[in-house]
Design goal:
With 185 residues, the chain is an all-alpha fold. The chain has nine helices and no strands. The termini are far apart. 25% of the residues are buried.
Length: 185
């Protein structure tokens, strides 16, 4: 057994690898401790419970999928951003088979309030970033947004369409890009 106490990032990296290889249902304090070659108590030094560990691991997966490292060009305009988001979701579904569906369904069950809050935070962050892109896109018509169609509502609608496609395992951004093109440009 590893005599050096592992770090939070090592634990999350091992958790992501367990999710990648065996699915989110394989995640437990014991399985992560075994993967890190540390005692169960070492995991509890960083996470108070299995729910805390799972929540942090899920957030870590989302961060890995949507991390913008080297992707600055994807945020030059709304259409490029949406295409990039679909590409990231498709890549994430390949790296983490079943993650999106199990994550969404698992946290929507009764008694998963913390998971729902965590999922809402992740999705709120995505909507907020999409709003930034929508507001800074020089190609958007000046009259595109109204009291009924605000930047926030459009961003939320785009994310809803993406989540729906994600749940169906469809990662072709063409239809959403066409809708956005007609509405904004």
């Amino acid at each position: 057994m590893n005599t050096i106490v592992t770090s939070r990032e090592d634990i999350l990296e091992a958790s992501r690898e367990l999710i990648r290889q065996r699915g989110i249902s394989a995640l437990s304090i014991r399985s992560v401790a075994a993967a890190c070659d540390v005692s169960v108590g070492s995991i509890y030094n960083y996470f108070d419970s299995k729910a805390d560990l799972i929540s942090a691991a899920v957030e870590s997966v989302w961060h890995e999928i949507f991390h913008r490292q080297g992707d600055a060009a994807a945020f030059r305009d709304t259409l490029a951003c949406i295409a990039w988001m679909y590409d990231r979701l498709e890549d994430g579904s390949k790296r983490y088979p079943g993650f999106f569906t199990l994550h969404a369904l698992g946290f929507m069950q009764e008694g998963k309030a913390g998971g729902k809050q965590q999922m809402a935070r992740v999705w709120r962050h995505i909507v907020d970033e999409l709003c930034v892109v929508l507001r800074s896109d020089a190609g958007v018509r000046a009259d595109a947004f109204t009291d009924q169609l605000t930047v926030e509502r459009l961003a939320d609608t785009i994310l809803s369409l993406m989540v729906s496609a994600m749940m169906r395992g469809e990662y072709d951004s063409g239809a959403v890009l066409e809708i956005v093109r007609r509405v904004l440009y």
